[in-house]
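LAB NOTEBOOK - FOLDING QUEUE
OPERATOR: T.R.
BATCH SIZE: 2
PURPOSE: Compare the predicted structure-token outputs for two unrelated chains run back to back under identical settings.
PRIORITY: normal
REVIEWER: second-year student, initials M.K.

ITEM 1
FIELD SEQUENCE / FIELD STRUCTURE:
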Amino acid sequence: MKTIVLAGGCFWGVEMYFKNIDGVKDTTVGYANGNVENPTYELVCKNTTGFAEACEIKYDENVVSLKKILEAYWVVVDPTIKDRQGHDIGKQYRTGIYYSDESDISVIEASKAEEQKKYEQPIVTEVLPLKNFYSAEEYHQDYLDKNPNGYCHIPRELLKK
């Protein structure tokens, strides 16, 4: 099993989208790369913690490659917008790719370079080592399963398997 943490605006839709991809074995929404311990949703929303709403994705690389995971990621984010996706605005809604395995850097950078060819504006998605990740509160986990009409910036047709 491999792990990658992706930030792409509100974490509810990112989680729903990725858990429907063959080879993804587990998803957890939470807060990545901030500067306090054990953040809460309320604290992260104050924009003082440095955290991004993110989704930890555990996947079987024998079924789906990191390259394919990243190709799917670029479909549901606008990587040229800083600190915003859809109606969600703030530093916690930035786009980011956070890795734990140094060998993933070349795949990530190649994917980002390929995606850049589609845009005139520069991609602002941060690519950084995963400094920390804290699971979000339980009510955020599988939120769109629990609340099928809940808000999501990702088009609903992309959230189905």
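ITEM 2
FIELD SEQUENCE / FIELD STRUCTURE:
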Amino acid sequence: MQKQQNFIKLIKENEGIIYKITLVYAFNEEDQKDLYQEIVYQLWKSFDSFRGGSKISTWMYRIALNTSITSLKKEKRKGEQVSFNNDLLDRIDQIDTIMEDRIKLLYSHIKQLNTVEKGVILLYLEGKNYDEIAAITGFTSSNVGTRLNRIKQKLKSQIKK
């Protein structure tokens, strides 16, 4: 019972991590809910194996990103193409409408990135440093820096169009 209570507390304290990943990797609200549930399920399955060798958020990001990538691969194998639903981005709760529009634009362009690029830029936007991103993704810190520079350039060129 204590394990379950600890897990629920962990999810409640860090649900923003899961929400942000589902926002980027899911195509519509229904897919977002399904992915959220799948991530929580995978976290539960792995909960006993977490030994505290990294921060809990690093562990959660790693599982959430791996689950999201696996989910995308399964969808591709199905051959289904789901169109992007702009209503998901309407949930971003910002008072400043100019900032809200910029965030929407950014996330719409992030959705166009490949699977790995989405994960790296999402972690960067969360304020993770290169070493933390490297720990989550398995890349080296220098590789993370290179990838981030390329992703930033790609986003800048897409947004300027």
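REVIEWER COMMENT (ITEM 2): The first helix runs from residue 2 to 25.
FOLLOW-UP: none requested
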